[in-house]
Design a protein that fits this description.
Layout (H helix, E strand, L loop, with lengths): L3 H9 L4 H10 L1 H11 L6 E5 L5 H13 L7 E6 L2 H11 L5 E5 L14 E7 L7 H14 E12 L16 H8 L3 E5 L4 E7 L1
Parallel strand pairs: 1-2, 1-4, 2-3, 4-5
Antiparallel strand pairs: 5-7, 6-7
Helix pairs in contact: 3-4
Amino acid sequence: MAADKTWFEHYAARMNDQYRDHMRKKYAKHINMVASAASKDNGLRVAEIGCGAANITRLVSERIIKKSNDTIFPRYVILDSCPQMLGLARANLLAVSDHVAQLGNALDLGMSKDLMDVDVFHSHGVLEHFRDGQINVIINEQKRMASRGAQLIHYVPSAKYEKPSFGDERLMTPDQWFDICMPDDIIEFNDGYDLILKWSL
């Protein structure tokens, strides 16, 4: 994976409404799926792993606020291994959601009380940066920490893209993803260029 500073610069340049509008439109399927899972009950705990600037959590939060008449919203936990990135994420979420920012590694969630009994784990553009065995460790860590009935909802780009957009992305087919980590469901969208890997516990 690229150095933290490079990732920080990549995301820092995208802290604006124009980029969020682009994400809102292009990844609407993923955002809506996370928002739907996160709003099934009041007060659910929702964790974005490898959050970057936490744009997906922000867009999920905005969508739930827009659709809900309730006063109790999900509690968001954002995790990233880069302190600078968490600074961007905190600033991004300041106006839209109650959240806890945690420095950590997706491969080892430890026993953090903030990540215990999470109802929805999600990520956007994270899993494809890891090796096969590491992907399984990441998913098993989330299953270990998740609440009963939780959902894991992870976006990855597919092999239809001709080249990686940034960093060391692995561009794989739905069959390849199934062989690696056996999600319960793989949802293709944007003409199969984009995938959602989903587990229901």
